[in-house]
Design brief:
Length: about 160
């Protein structure tokens, strides 16, 4: 999970780096050759894109730095932690639900992904199979029993 995320972010960094160093300078150069820059929409668009790309690169680098600091030995083997897939049963409705805990700054969430800092993430963290946890919501409190747990250590490599 972590390696796949690092690869995905690294690929985006490479793509944006190429755009910043090759594509955008060419676009800016072409726009400058057109003349009056005050009313040149291509020039303004290229500069705005350049600012966006720089900001996104900084964001990705910070995220990669955080990922590099994750110590897999600190993630529990038998309790819910980062990367765990948890299957719970709602004690009131008997409905089974599946959640996967991901980083809070994740930019894309698949169905069932929740951040560790979300209410459901906080309710599940450090719990183990068989435990009942309470998910406090504005309208009510849900009782969820953990029936299955696949930690990041047990998850199949993608």
């Amino acid at each position: 999970m972590l390696e796949a995320l690092k690869e995905k972010l690294g690929a985006e960094v490479e793509k944006l780096q190429h755009e910043l160093n090759v594509t955008l300078p060419n676009e800016i150069r072409r726009a400058v050759e057109m003349g009056d820059l005050r009313e040149n929409s291509e020039y303004k668009a290229a500069l705005e894109r350049q600012q966006f790309v720089r900001a996104r690169l900084e964001q990705l680098r910070q995220r990669l730095s955080k990922l590099a600091q994750v110590d897999m030995s600190q993630i529990p083997l038998d309790r819910v932690g980062l990367g765990s897939t948890v299957i719970v049963v709602c004690q009131e409705t008997e409905v089974r639900e599946s959640y996967t805990l991901v980083f809070g700054d994740s930019d894309s969430f698949d169905e069932g992904h929740v951040t560790m800092s979300s209410p459901i993430g906080r309710a599940l963290i450090n719990k183990s199979v068989g435990e009942v946890t309470f998910l406090r919501l504005p309208a009510r409190t849900r009782r969820l029993k953990i029936v299955e747990l696949i930690t990041i250590h047990q998850a199949p490599a993608k």
